[in-house]
TrEMBL record:
Transmembrane segments: none annotated. It comes from the Bacteria. InterPro entries: Peptidase_M15C, Zn_M74/Hedgehog-like. This is M15 family peptidase. Residues 106-168 form the Peptidase M15C domain. GO terms for molecular function: peptidase activity.
């Protein structure tokens, strides 16, 4: 996984709207916190757009829309969100208060660059591990493999937590 310093080198300043684009995903995605709402578009970093599209196309080919929906792979929890990583909010605020923007940047989530996505957050919470997270089950192995095959890593496989989260490496 890339450090935030490497993120700046590769993807530019976090939160820079000039770096974002909108892609049309190949299957409908339900908004995780309001599943009655459907989207077919997602904002992400322009350098990540192709990788995201490859992931979504391969997931569609592998599972098909009915299975994607049944498994909750279509529950979109977000991509672009300028914020600190969960659990570092206080350190981030202290660094900003001290006007140490370099230190503050080390606490930013990869979502700040639009290079990470969360899927089905309700059943793959930040603190769930492989015993309880939905995406740790065998029926999601192919989905996880697809993300990895297109240059993403999952915090579930890497750190056995936050199984919803996949980020471009």
């Amino acid at each position: 996984m890339l450090t935030n310093l490497k993120m700046v080198e590769r993807f530019g300043e976090p939160g820079n709207p000039d770096n974002f684009t909108v892609i049309t995903v190949p299957y409908p995605m339900r908004i995780a916190w309001d599943p009655a709402k459907i989207t077919s578009r997602m904002q992400c970093h322009k350098l990540a757009a192709h990788a995201f599209m490859d992931v979504f196309n391969d997931i569609l080919t592998e599972y098909g829309v009915p299975k994607i929906r049944e498994l909750g792979i279509d529950l979109f929890g977000g991509c672009v969100n300028f914020r600190p990583m969960r659990g570092t909010e206080k350190k981030y605020e202290e660094a900003l208060k001290a006007k140490n923007t370099k230190l503050a940047a080390t606490y930013l989530s990869k979502h700040s660059w639009g290079t990470a996505i969360d899927l089905d957050p309700a059943r793959n919470t930040l603190k769930q591990n492989s015993k309880t997270a939905q995406f740790a089950k065998p029926e999601y192995t192919k989905m996880n493999d697809i993300f990895y095959s297109h240059g993403f890593v999952g915090l579930g496989r890497e750190e056995n937590r936050d199984w919803m989260h996949f980020e471009l490496k």
